[in-house]
Structure formats: C-alpha cells, structure tokens
Amino acid sequence: MTPRILNLRAALLLGATLLASSPALAEAVLHRGNAGEPQTLDQAHTSINIEEFILKDLYEGLTVYDASGKIVPGAAETWDLSDDGLTYTFKLRADAKWSDGSPLTAEDFVFSYQRVEDPKTAAGYANILYPIKNAEKVNKGEVPPAELGVKAIDEKTLEVTLERPTPFFLELLAHQTALPVSKASVEKNGADFVKPGTMVSNGAFKLVSHVPNDNLVVEKNASYWDAANVKLDKVIFYPIDDQAASVRRFEAKEMDLVYNFSADQIDRLRGAYGDQVHVSPTLATYYYAFDTRQEPYSDVRVRQALSMAVDRDFLAKEIYSGSQIPAYSMVPPGIETYGEPSKADFGTMSQLDREDKAVALMKEAGYGEGGKPLNIEIRYNTNPNHERVATAVADMWKNTFGANVSLVNLDVSSHYAYLQEGGKFNVARAGWVADYADAENFLALSLSSNKTFNYGHYENPAFDDLMKRSYEETDPAARSKLMHEAEAMLMKDQPIAPFLTQADLWLVSGRVQGWHDNAANQHLSRFLSVSE
C-alpha cells in the first residue's frame, strides 16, 4: 500500500473521528425546572400549569400558542366559522399522526371531548369546553355524551357546534383540557394510557420515563408532523418546588430553565446573570380564599375586614421586590375586551383608613379584641414567596385584630387537591393564571356551580344570574357591563381577597434559544433550542 493511500485513510479516519465528536451531532437536551410534581398526565384531570408545561410538549390541540404567545394552527391546519358564529369546521393536517405512527383522526377529538364532558370521567376542568353545544348538559348527566356538539365529518374533518358565539373559543382549544387522547390507546389501556412505555401522544415529544419527585423525560417524536423543525432531542423536567435548590442547580449549569424563583433574589440574580433573569407581566391573580361554609368566614363583614387589613403595597414591594402589583380586583388589568376591572371600594382608601374601617367591621361582627376570639389557619402551597406572604398577612391580622394565626403548608399537588376535593379550611392561598384572555375566566371561578375551583364555596344567586346573562349576551359592550357588575358584587362580598397581579419569574440560561416572554406564559419546548 502506498504512503499516499495510507495518508488518505488516516485523513478519513481523523475526519470521521472529528465529525463524531462534533458538538453539532451531540444530543440536544433541555433541562427544565418545573416547580412541582404533576398530579396527573391525564388531560381530563389536569388543572395546574406545571402539568400544562409537560402535557403541551406531549400533545397538540387543534390550536396552539406559538413562541410569542399567539394562537396559531396546531393539529388543525385550517378552520372555517359559519356566519352565525356557531359552527367551526376544522381540517386536520394530513400528516398529523400519533407517536405509534397511526393517523390522528377527527374521531380522536370527538372521543376526547366526549370523555372530558362525560360525568363518569369527573373532569375537574370540564367547564373549559362548556361553550360547545350540550357540553354542560352532558357534564351534568342530563343528556348522553353522544349529544355533545362535535362530529367527525370524515377522517380529517371535525365539526364543532357551539351553544352561543364565543369570541375566545380558539384559545380554549389550546388549553390542556382540550388536548386529544388516542381513542385506541385509552380503550385498550384504560387509566394506564398515561404511563411511560404505554402513552401514545401526538405532540412534538413522547414520554420516555417518569420518576416521581425526581425527573420526567420526554424525547423527540419522530412521527410528529413538524418533527423536522423540532431542534431538541430530549427534554428533562425536574419537579423541584424548593426554589433555592432550583436556583443553585441553575447556577451550577445543571438546569437551563427555572420557573418561579424566590422574588427576593431578583436583584442579586440580575447582578450575576443580567438578562437571563426574566420578570414577565401576566394575566394572573394571587389571592386568598375564605371558606364561606363556616363561621366566622360566612360573615361578609369578617371577610371584608380581613381583606382590608392586608397591606398589598407591602407584599408587592417588600416580598416581591416590585415584580408584582397590588390588586383590588379579581380580574387583572390588560384584558382588551373588558377594560378597567371593577375594584373593591376600599382600594382607593389609605392603608391606615382601611385598617380603621376593618377594626370597626370586625367589632360589629363580634370578633377580635373585646369579642369572640379570632383563630385563623392559613393554608398555602410550599414555596418561599408564599410562606413570606402568609407570615406577613398573619402579622397584619395579629396586629390589627389580635388574631391567633397559624400556618399550614403542603406541596403544590396536595394543596390544590385538598381544595378541589372540598376540604374544609379557614383561609387558603390560591392563584389563577388566565386560560384565555377574557374576564369570564376569572369570574367563573366564583360561580356556585363551579365545584372544582370555587374553593370557598361562595353562593350568591344574584352573582350567578349576572354571569348567566353575560353568557347569553352577544353584544360585547353589554356583555362587559354585566361582567363588571358581577365583579363589583364579588369584590363587595370578598369570598376571595385578591392581593397581587402577578408576573412570571423565570431564569433562562444563555444557551436557550427561541425564548420569548409573553403574557400567556406559554413556552413550548418545540420552539426552543440549545447551543453551547
């Protein structure tokens, strides 16, 4: 063999070695901190955003949020809306498939939506799809699931008929409750369809493994219709609700994304990491709920007094370092179709005047100093920010009313499961992030018929009637007026005490590309990539 051939072979071997070790061919892995362990990976039972982040990587609805938080086509390539605003006709993508290679069909969506509304499923978020004709009746057991207003015209054409024109319906379809399930897989595997190795999904990724309270791994779904444009090979979710531990892992470059770090760290982190610290205003409200089923929280004067005594400016500035703003309405500002929310009337008073009024109200109700003892237990989900808020509120109530206040905390899944299952409490921390940009999404939480999210079991027929009329009203201005009246009533009754309009706090590593802050807080891994 000639030296020239040997040199050529050596060059080829060296080139192959360099190519194999090239960073371009290394596996692209995104490490996502996810702020808590998901309760479920079943679309019909999901309710919190740490589940949403995972589910929207695994599944794709008819519509999706793009990287900037705008609604765009998802599994449906196109749609038409009838002139009366009542009938949508969706055309599914011809190449939309499940991760097992089988075609995604209109019948899968019919099955999925019927499953959510079937009372046997007991879906906590069934009301998301109530705009669909007969959905509420199906969910209440008044008519069979087959009468839900969804129909497969052919394999790739889905017709959805609504009860009434719903301007935000396309946003509802991007919600995790409206994600499809594989009819074949659910019928074959039952409740086990959510397990790794069994789950069949139609999103950009598929489930590989799940070690509870440790990690959840998804990898690129080769059958996804847009797989060629998915730049990540794998995403590892870490369900860490210990914010300090999450930040340490970010600083050690073990995690690329951290959701909801401790707000008192903003200045320090900005000093160290600059624009990797993201404070993104969002349509979200931080509030406390009172259990109106029991004394003294059944007394509107007590609820008003407790709410008035909370110094929201202190919470916003001292605990959240100015990253959140004081709130006196349940609906946050910034919803175009609603305008300025209806605020509690004490929102315009000084904090000192509020406290004086609160003391008078509490005395009138017969509680506090000189009256019945006021023993209050505040429940909150484990989180340093929530603990600081609860501690501050407890001090405010002790100082204003002489109340005896104790704190109880649970992990996020257990906390919300307890509230949603009707567990009794005194006062409980909660937060609501808009599922869609409409005031109804916040006000509907307090409907007496909302058995899942009306944590305090507030019942007011007049409030229910105003909301009912808003659902029937087709004129946007008149509809907004009805909802403003309903919110004013809610803020007078104070079954919930809004404290803050929230911002989402993220740490985003400089190696993450394609990230865009948005009010919808939508960050599908499909639109992200990593670079060294």
Enumerate how many helices there are, as a single number. Answer: 16
Q: Class by helix and strand content? A: alpha+beta
Uncertain stretches of 5 or more adjacent residues: 1-24
Q: Termini distance? A: 42 Å
Radius of gyration: 25 Å
Mean pLDDT figure = 93
Bin the helical content.
Answer: 25-40%
The major β-sheet equals: 7 strands, mixed
> Hey, roughly how much beta strand do the residues contain?
15-25%
Q: Judging from the principal axes of the Cα atoms, what is the shape?
A: globular
Number of strands: 19
Q: Could you outline the blueprint of secondary structure elements for this entry?
A:
Layout: H1 3-20, E1 29-33, H2 49-58, E2 63-65, E3 71-73, E4 76-81, E5 87-92, H3 106-117, H4 135-139, E6 150-154, E7 157-161, H5 169-172, H6 183-189, E8 205-211, E9 215-220, E10 234-238, H7 243-251, E11 257-259, H8 266-273, E12 277-290, H9 300-308, H10 312-319, E13 325-326, H11 351-365, E14 375-381, H12 384-401, E15 404-410, H13 412-420, E16 427-433, H14 440-443, H15 461-472, H16 476-493, E17 496-508, E18 512-513, E19 529-530
Parallel strand pairs: 1-10, 14-15, 14-16
Antiparallel strand pairs: 2-3, 4-5, 5-7, 6-7, 8-9, 9-10, 11-17, 12-16, 12-17, 13-17, 18-19
Helix pairs in contact: 9-11, 15-16
